[in-house]
Amino acid sequence: MLKATKVRIYPTPEQAEFLNRQFGAVRFAYNKALHIISSQYKRHGLKLNAKKELKPLLAVAKKSRKYHWLNDFDSIALQQACINLYQAFQRFFDPKLASRCPKFKRKQGKQSSYHCMSVGCGDDWIKVPKLEPIKARIHRKLEGKLKSITLSRNRRILCLTAA
Q1: Domain boundaries of the chain, sorted by first residue
Q2: pTM for the full model?
Q3: 33, 60, 113, 126: least CB-packed within 10 angstroms?
Q4: Per residue in 144-155, is it b (16+ CB within 10 Å) or e — as a string?
Q5: 104 with 36: CB under 8 angstroms?
Q6: pLDDT band at 163 (very low <50, low <70, confident <90, very high)
Q7: What is the dihedral of CA 107, 109, 114, 120, to 10 degrees?
Q8: What angle do CA 146, 148, 152 make, to 5 degrees?
Q9: Does residue 22 contact residue 73 with C-beta atoms inside 8 Å?
């Protein structure tokens, strides 16, 4: 059984700046994938699968000169943005859920977060990929193995998911 706990983090100014850029890169990947899907549907009537067809394009985009800056960020978080878009389209096309069509994410959006794996945790720190350990105040003991985390920008709260 997975359990989640929220932990407040205290990043240094350099870490906070990197996290803001990471949020921007994840938002860019989501918006770019949504743009590709919507333009292909409008032009050619093709339905692209964000999970199967656009997620592999991230590796190609990272090698290009135009998007080489994506190499600075966690690849799992960028891939998770494509998976989130895929799930948004699944909910949109499911008649039982009656969800709205996925929209482009804004910088000031209410859900500024990203999901990452291969993380570590100590008594007073959290290790996130491509970053030094971030100071954190962990109130409850984390039981089980740490699977993944979701970083949220609201008041620098970090949500840990442990199994």
Answers
A1: 3-162
A2: 0.86
A3: 60
A4: eebebbbbbbee
A5: no
A6: very low
A7: 90
A8: 125
A9: yes
